[in-house]
Amino acid sequence: MHNDDSTSSTLAEPVANPLPILMEGIARHRLVQAQYNGAVFKLAPYQLFERHKDLFISALNMSKTWASDDERRLGQFKIAGLSALELLDEEFVPIPGYDGSLPRAEDVLLLAI
Questions:
Q1: CB atoms inside a 10 Å sphere around CB 44
Q2: Tell me: the pLDDT tens digits for 83-103?
């Protein structure tokens, strides 16, 4: 039973504060694995931003099959909806032509690649 308790407390820590994992992923161009709406995704995080006092990330969903490299685009993920975050030991290369613009004019940038 003791082992189960230590495992659950280890898993709960990233959920309680996902920001260090996401910030490291952005800063070091590393993939992050997370659960979002019940599905597991590998995300390449590009931006951390605030919208209406909620935190979001713009990220490329590496788990999605894109028809071509030209169709790849960033999606927005509300941080409150992410769980079971894990920083992976895999780096990503930013999308060619990535300009760093925010999804909406009222968004406030906090960190970006």
A1: 24
A2: 999 999 999 999 988 999 999
